[in-house]
Structure formats: structure tokens, C-alpha cells
Amino acid sequence: MNAVWKRVSESGHLELPEDIRSALGVEHGGRVMIEQTGGEIHLRSVAEVVARVQALTRALVGDHAEISSDALIAERRREASRD
Domain limits of the chain? Predict the structure, then answer.
């Protein structure tokens, strides 16, 4: 765990140290998800959020190709070409 003390500016801004941004894979101007749980906040990069959603989807759906996003997109394209 990497912990540092920082001050929140009057406008509510918080500067993330470069090593933490780098570890999260967040570049200048990059987006993060901020989650507040009890008295804590957690920052997650977009890549981490996507990876978690994909893992949850795999756990729920498994290897059912008929429910994959690629299969859904292909089905919608077939329907659109019929119109």
C-alpha cells in the first residue's frame, strides 16, 4: 500500500502524486472513479473498472457465446440489414 498525506484545496481539488497516477495508469487529465465507502474513498482507473465489470459478467454469463457482446452486435447488424 502506498500512503501519502495531501491537502484538499479550498475548491475541493486533490493532487495525486505522480507515482500513484502511474500505478493506476492514469495520465494528466485522465478519468478515475471515486467510490466512497463509510469513512473511506477509493480511486479506480477506467481500466480497473472495465476489468471488474468484465470479470463480473464472465462470472454471471460464463462461456455462453449467444449472450456475448460480439454476438449481440452481430445480431443487431443482421436485423438492420433486413430493414
Answer: 18-82
Query: Is this model's pTM higher than 0.85 or not?
Result: no
Report how far apart, in Å, the C-alpha atoms of 2 and of each of 6, 24, 55, 58, 59 are. Answer: 13, 12, 25, 30, 30
Q: Which residue has the cell 487529465?
A: 29
- Is 4:20 a contact under the CB 8 Å cutoff? yes
pLDDT digits (tens, 9 = 90+) for 39-61: 999 999 999 999 998 888 878 77
Distances (CA, A) of 20 to 2, 26, 27, 43, 82: 8, 9, 10, 10, 51
